[in-house]
Amino acid sequence: MVEPITYETDVTTLSEAEELYIFDLPPDLKRLREIIKATKPINIHACYILENSMYLKAFPTREEFKWFYAFIYKRRSVDLKREMKVIMDAKGWNKDHILFIANVFFELEFVKIDNGMIEINANPVKKDLQDSKFYQERLIQADIEKVLYYSNYQELKQWFSKSMDHLSNHEEERANGL
Prior knowledge:
178 residues; mainly alpha; two-stranded parallel ribbon; 11% strand; elongated
């Protein structure tokens, strides 16, 4: 019998299974390890499609964040609907790159965004870029992709093997003739 599992499934309700088929990347690696430990599979089959890779996208540098903030600060407000192409041409960035930086600034309350208009916050509280959940989620997603999608066969097998410690007991038993 096939038992469909999602990453939201309560792991305490999972049964052991010989086979585990993975069709989607997890929200974090810890969650996938929990599912593996709960189901104790002998074989894992990974078959997922990645349509919008975070790992392959250039992650903005600190200097790019500084440049964009200075750009907004100098003008006090920027209409992204009109200025997007100008910024893209001037910096060689794509739309996602600009929107990512803008969203990090918005989350950290460095700027206000309303209907495409970005305005500088007059008195922002000093915060590190890494305090942004949006920033952290992108780093985590890129790491998940690196481990589970872009690694070679040997690296992927090694990662799964570390998560399948339940099999080491069987191997020890077989080695000792049990």
